[in-house]
Amino acid sequence: MEKIRNFCIIAHIDHGKSTLADRLLEFTGTVTDRDAQEQVLDDMDLERERGITIKSHAIQMDYDDGNDKYVLNLIDTPGHVDFSYEVSRSIAACEGALLIVDATQGIQAQTISNLYLAIENDLEIIPVLNKMDLDNAMPDEVKDQIVDLIGCEYEDIVEASGKTGYGVDKVLDTIVEKVPPPKGNLEAPFQALIFDSVFNSFRGIIAYFKVVNGEINKGDLVKFVNTEKEYEANEIGVLRLTPEPRETLKTGDVGYIISGIKAAKEVKVGDTITHVKNPCDVAIEGFEDVKPMVFAGIYPIDAEDYEELRASMEKLQLNDASLTYEPESSAALGFGFRCGFLGLLHMDIIQERLDREFDMAVITTMPNVSYQVVTNRDERIEVHNPSGLPEQKYVRHIEEPFIRAQIITDANYIGPIMKLCLDKRGTLLNQIYLTTTRVEITMDMPLGEIVFDFYDKLKSISKGYASFDYHMTGYKPASLVKLDILLNGESVDALSTLIHQDNAYSLGRKICVKLKDLIPRQQFDIAIQAGIGTKIIARETVKALRKDVTAKCYGGDITRKRKLLEKQKKGKKRMRQVGNVEVPQSAFLVVLKLND
Questions:
Q1: pLDDT tens for residues 453-476?
Q2: What share of the chain is helix, strand, coil (3-state, %, to 5)?
């Protein structure tokens, strides 16, 4: 145990986390020249293209510092706010963390939020100043920021470059010197923390865990505490570049277990593994079921592809247990699924993976968040879809989820960013100058307001400089209304949305104007209306196509023409009663992009 070091890497997106991890693997000889490639630990094409870590990874390295041989377990973490629960479990499995800060950009919002997680778990923080090889690096200024943030000494900050490999040896020596070995009792009953899982189509679910107490042998009968399922440890081992089987794993080791588990729901990140015969007294704390934050309907463009979409969703869920979905149907879009995502990036990635890996063309409805409805009988109902809202007369009030948002930006952009946040119903809590030119703004905001286009607008206002991070704070009552879109008096469920009362009129007006251009003309007038309950707040009319029935009347009495026009009028009236309006697919897509 004295020779084991478990550590993770904390960094904002694009601060060089994966590149520095590559250099550590090369320096320790874990990756041979033949296997070497950019971003070794990011094995998804999507991760490489976007330069983000979506799935966390773990890898074991051997390091000889000249006096002793050490085993270093790097538990890599995703950098994005959507995956903060995975990050928290990875951090809980470590004793130390490398805090990587880009020498050209300084400290960003996600660095701070993940750093707080690490400090809560009593991790030893090693600050690393990355990208020192770049001409526009500002080492002195950024070092001041790091010292202000974590209160370390200037000498403690390790200068490095993931690109050139400069300072990597110093990083490894500092890990060995400063990160404490794992604490735990080898004699105690077996207790291990699951920090990740992956799906293998031949072996089933493979769970990654860290042994906190005791030891596990191949063939042992184990129990997952929170799911209360029992399995046999068919194979255990350590995580090198490829998994290496072992007979025994002891306290402090990081490894994997294969038990032929077929259902992703049975392996939950944060769960505790123990022996069936001699179980541990308490589970490792911190476990929670991951709750989706953003909901949207996903429908196949061609209705015949529904079963294929179901099969694709099942396969995706095996790889990503945080995706939730249930079947739903819409009068306008047919059969599809109501899906829950951890956040907007997660939703974007799922759509991209459906397209790439399964070749599925899908329509996604307006993303919305889950609301809590308190009825007149004091019942609390969770609503994920506007169509699931009870009638207005039964609703006492609706509560919406709120977030605490942290925005770090250049001081020049404070005005426009403040205006954007206040327009989205945000309230300012705090404003701190990190340096003379960098400001941290803390806001309370409704999650529903940032779901659409907040992030894009923030980036364009700040010319890409502002960084954004948030966490849920709970639910608060809000004056929300259900906005219905009606065609000839019939509500179109796929276009209905829950929205704040102040924004309802403008959005209803926009949708009506847009639909007027998109819905093809019929033989009768089509009324497009936006309504809240029984009150209509906006209306547009698609005028009827009209055949010129009086063309054959040249000359003669006016009554002949009147007779023909009256006959046409009656026919149109009858047609309107039996005619139905087809909404083209393009109309749904355009309405989704209204907020862009």
A1: 777 788 788 876 777 777 788 888
A2: 30, 35, 35
